[in-house]
């Protein structure tokens, strides 16, 4: 039976579980045994203690924990020193390890991170070099941490009972799941709060202002600008508060990085894996054909579906129309994900091929591609409607009569294709509503409900094949059985990927900046969705996913650029939309809009773009005027460090110096001397001379 | 008689000369004497030795030098520690002062900088707080260093005899005049070298390609992009090589800064002068009306002159025409400088009023205003011709007949104003040539020749009033008399302002990016001019100006933004110009260009702009692929520092720690224990269990 996710079984002090596969196609018993012993020794060598239990017929679990208290403390201290030396922490940790640990106790996230590094880092860099499937440990299936159910249940309780997630909550989260996850929730929370504004603006615009009101558009874009500028600074604050600022520069070498030759680093003089940058650049060139192919296919497909839809809903009215109208939606929601999935894998392959040496670089490169793909699939339909269908429908639709003829054959009604075409007034708005409400709801279901069902089903399947009787050595207590049961469950869960959640939010933000002018209520739908999302994601992490390895991050990473891009594009499209539809606002985008002159659109775009950048600059200046809390904190800490050193150095009086050997330029030579030009021995004498001159001159004058 | 600027009189070990005014309107004798003694005591208190000589009837010279060798050495050491703590130098100076000074001997620039700080820094910050005319030392006229004629003559010799200024030369320069000046020459040299490319491109374009060739335009803009991206990185390299990277963040408090109240710094806890940021922002708001007024006036004036010119040269042909044609030029070159000068002073006032606390901020704010003013005065005429005159002349010029009528009265020829108007084919090109060749030559004369003449004249005037007989106390050697003579000369020289030289180059770069499409030879004229300029500026510094105080800088500062702006604008205007004139290239911009459709221009601009930014991004990425020398050097140094520390910290084994007091999360508790879940005592045992499981399962399978 399934264990209640919120029951309070302890984790038996296990830090990580390594799933080791010993049987299966092409796995030799001896190889398995060798690798296992190698694995255990490797773990032992970096000060980790191991314990083994069985899982199923093909794999077993290696439980890992820290072996020696002292060793680990030193580990912590070293990592903090390292952070300091890389400028991540402004001040060095206390010289006495003990004091420093009392001052800053080790959070669970920090502990898990360090242990994870002990397991995964290359042997050279103080790790055991164990990376699932990559490298020498081909039989290592996965490495995962175990959920702290007690904390999880508390977490979910508090969040489900409070309206707003407090900063303390976030810090709390960061202490358990690391900065990377915490940053996502921080962003989501900030975004949620900020949404309140466009909600009010949108609602009042919808009620009071004409559709496509310039005023609302300006407010909306300005809001986006302010939000992003604010978040940029908020990020810094959080990074400083969490002591991770600049950690993204720490450059963790990717395990999957294939080097061309071993080379000596010009800086460190150490032997390092080398792969020529120019080659990488060349490989990155492949982005161009990829982008063309992907966007071509996706846009093409969407356009076709679009055409079919228009035809069926507005030209065709033969039999089965009532049924056929659903065809496009079916096609879209059926095939689109497949295409997207396909191209995503290609993108991944491409990024692998680019062979980045550093995790951050890899992720950035991949994220960019993902963004483009999602951008196309999410927004193309709306772009088509607003910039192709509405302006040009009258021109295009008739050509759909090729289809119209076939339609005619199916029916007797002669007027089918003489049937005069009319642009559907509310299509655009309808679409926006579909994408911003329906899609959100569906997606929500897919994210929360579906996996739950899936798990239940799998569980049932599992229960058919009775689990193997554990060998005598493993006969443990009831609690242990329960624990192992739980471990097996968690081993089957998916790995949580914060990127996908971030992507979701970014795309949502896009709808807001690009199209909310069409339907001002957009933000209302989003604020509801996100309030739920925030909680749903918490549940997802606790129940549906393995416990994420607490990695560090000092921002939401490359997604910030995507957000900025969307805000900018929003300024352009919004103005274009207004230019197109504003005048006949009363009967919506439907009625024939004024003839689209390129001049108009271009001017609109040029204007809004430049205004946008100006606005962004100004807002930025405004924010900078008030120094952020984080930067202030940082400056203070850095200052204190400086002060300490300066005071030390002030002590230095130059008595111990043999002055002759030092070259300070001529002016310092023969300082003591009174000969030649420098006659005055002291201030008094100098002043005397001065006074004489003054008197002399003045008397001369008076004569 | 005038002393030969290159004679090798030594500076009597004087570091700085302070000119002190004791007589004049509203100066009381006693006040003067008090201030003088105060001054001398202040200097003495910061370890500076003084000597006094007379200058003229109203002022005397206070000569300043370092008093104690030891004290100064400590000063140097402290300042270097400070640099390290602020991250300007990666590594701390050697603990033993002596060693550190042997390793990095004090350059003349460093010495003069430190002495200057000793004189000028506020009393709180280890200086004597002496700032000319500001604060308590109202009678201090100026503080200036003395030229090292020996070095100067060598400098000019080498530069006038070599084609290219070598990096060593620049470093040499930096050691004498400080980074600020050195950066200007470094920029000029880099720019000069880069100019070779557009020279070739331009010449071949002029000879082979049709006028307004798109190809040349792209090449030209691309060149600008590459140049700027290169320079950005070059700047960093130089800053690192000269050990000043990040020194612009050191934030020197302005002497003229007026504080509202004394406040405690949230960071340092020290009492600091406080002026609310919001107030400053409000005051900065004044930029708007100022910009409007200035641009309005300047543009208006230029437009009028322009109209007059067009009228005289192309409509009017009454009497005196031959003379009248010069009127516009006279007006322009007569009144424009006055207007510009006026607005520049206003801009200065405004910036003063903005009351920036930090030198850098003040300079940035002022530079921005200056740039706008110069932008208008330099480019408006050409913009008028290309975007108003040529496209709309046919429409506008007839209105000039109001003048035409008056003209008619002066003459009998009836056809004067029936005289049909024709657009002057070569006006645009002529103008560009005027601004890029004639103007450069004139300006060159103004910069080099005029001041020389001026000085000669003043010199003569001086010689009429025989200098006062020096009082007995001062009867010095011949050499001394000669020396004082020289000091008096130098005291009369102007203060060298690197900004104005930079501005000149920036505006020149503007002509290149904005208009060289009209006359591809532009860059040829510039390369010649700049080759001379580079040397002329050297002469200027050596002969026409006082020795600049060697200030530090880690870039050419705010001018970089101006350059980027010009490159960007260039991409827009060039495409617009091409759109306007390309087709009828054969008979130049003159013949009636195709009717200007806004759509076309807008499209051209949108396209080129976006292409421009894309190109800039790509070029940037390309450059980043190859790591810059400077950054490499810096990384190496930082690495070495880290290594040292890490090795120290590695020593820490955690034996001295009382493990019980430290909280490392539960998993660390009862590490030794073998009870409960953790039964295996060592790797062997663990492995044993694992092996059993594997065998067990596999046997089960085989059955």
Automatic annotation (TrEMBL), chains A, B:
Keyword Transmembrane helix set for record: yes
Domain Anoctamin alpha-beta plait, residue spans: 13-140
GO molecular function (one): chloride channel activity
Domain Anoctamin transmembrane: start-end pairs: 174-628
Main location: membrane
Compartment annotation: Membrane
Domain of life: Eukaryota
Membrane topology according to the record: Multi-pass membrane protein
Keyword annotations of the record: Membrane, Transmembrane, Transmembrane helix
Listed transmembrane segments: 181-209, 215-231, 286-312, 324-343, 370-390, 432-453, 509-528
Annotated GO CC locations: cortical endoplasmic reticulum; membrane
A Pfam family the protein falls into: Anoctamin
Protein name: DUF590-domain-containing protein
Organism this protein belongs to: Ascobolus immersus RN42
């Amino acid at each position: 039976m399934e264990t209640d996710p919120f029951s309070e079984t302890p984790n038996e002090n296990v830090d990580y579980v390594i799933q080791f596969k010993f049987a299966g196609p092409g796995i030799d018993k001896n190889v398995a045994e060798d690798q296992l012993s190698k694995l255990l020794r490797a773990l032992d060598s970096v000060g980790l203690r191991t314990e083994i239990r069985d899982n199923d017929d093909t794999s077993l679990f290696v439980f890992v924990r820290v072996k020696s208290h002292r060793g680990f403390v030193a580990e912590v201290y070293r990592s903090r020193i390292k952070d300091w030396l890389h400028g991540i922490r402004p001040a060095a940790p206390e010289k006495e390890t003990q004091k420093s640990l009392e001052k800053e106790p080790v959070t669970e996230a920090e502990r898990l991170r360090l242990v994870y590094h002990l397991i995964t880092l290359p042997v050279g860099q103080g790790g055991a070099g164990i990376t699932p499937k990559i490298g020498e440990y081909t039989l290592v299936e996965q490495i995962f941490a175990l959920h702290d159910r007690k904390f999880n249940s508390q977490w979910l309780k508090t969040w489900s009972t409070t309206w707003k997630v407090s900063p303390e909550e976030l810090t709390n989260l960061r202490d358990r799941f690391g900065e990377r996850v915490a940053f996502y929730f921080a962003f989501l929370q900030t975004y949620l709060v900020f949404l309140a504004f466009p909600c009010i603006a949108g609602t009042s615009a919808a009620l009071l202002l004409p559709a496509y009101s310039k005023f609302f558009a300006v407010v909306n874009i300005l809001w986006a600008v302010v939000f992003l500028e604010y978040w940029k600074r908020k990020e810094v604050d959080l990074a400083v508060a969490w002591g991770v600022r600049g950690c993204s520069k720490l450059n963790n070498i990717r395990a999957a990085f294939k080097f061309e030759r071993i080379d000596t680093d010009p800086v460190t003089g150490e032997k390092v894996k080398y792969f020529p940058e120019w080659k990488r650049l060349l490989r990155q060139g492949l982005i161009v054909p990829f982008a063309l192919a992907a966007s071509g296919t996706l846009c093409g497909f969407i356009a076709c579906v679009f055409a079919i839809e228009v035809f069926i809903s507005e030209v065709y009215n033969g039999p089965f129309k009532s049924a056929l109208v659903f065809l496009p939606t079916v096609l879209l929601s059926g095939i689109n994900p497949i295409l997207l999935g396909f191209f995503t894998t290609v993108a991944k392959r491409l990024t692998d091929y680019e062979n980045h040496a550093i995790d951050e670089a890899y992720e950035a490169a991949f994220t960019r591609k993902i963004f483009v793909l999602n951008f196309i699939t999410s927004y193309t339909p709306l772009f088509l409607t607003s910039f192709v269908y509405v302006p040009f429908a009258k021109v295009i639709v008739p050509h759909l009569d090729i289809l119209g003829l076939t339609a005619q054959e199916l029916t007797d009604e002669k007027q089918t294709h003489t049937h005069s075409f009319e642009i559907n007034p509310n299509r655009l708005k309808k679409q926006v509503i579909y994408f911003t409400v329906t899609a959100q709801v569906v997606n929500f279901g897919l994210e929360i409900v579906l996996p739950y069902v899936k798990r239940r089903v799998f569980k049932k399947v599992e229960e058919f094949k009775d689990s193997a009787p554990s060998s005598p050595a493993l006969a443990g207590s009831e609690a242990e059985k329960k624990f192992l049961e739980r471990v097996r469950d968690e081993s089957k869960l998916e790995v949580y990927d914060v990127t996908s959640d971030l992507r979701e939010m970014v795309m949502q933000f896009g709808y807001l900046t690009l199209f909310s002018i069409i339907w001002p209520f957009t933000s209302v739908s989003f604020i509801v969705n996100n309030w739920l999302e925030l909680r749903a994601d918490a549940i997802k992490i606790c129940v549906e996913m393995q416990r994420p390895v607490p990695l560090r991050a000092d921002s939401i990473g490359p997604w910030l650029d995507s957000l900025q891009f969307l805000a900018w594009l929003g300024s352009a499209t919004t103005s274009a939309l207004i230019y197109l539809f504003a005048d006949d606002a009363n009967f919506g985008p439907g009625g024939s809009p004024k003839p689209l002159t390129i001049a108009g659109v271009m001017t609109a775009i040029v204007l809004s773009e430049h205004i946008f950048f100006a606005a962004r600059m100004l807002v930025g200046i405004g924010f900078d005027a008030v120094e952020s809390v984080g930067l202030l904190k940082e400056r203070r800490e850095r200052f204190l460090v400086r002060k300490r050193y300066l005071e030390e150095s002030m002590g230095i009086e130059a008595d111990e110096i043999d002055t002759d050997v030092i070259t300070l330029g001529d002016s310092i030579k023969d300082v003591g001397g009174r000969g030649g030009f420098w006659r005055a021995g002291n201030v008094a004498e100098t002043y005397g001379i001065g006074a004489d001159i003054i008197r002399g001159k003045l008397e001369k004058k008076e004569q």
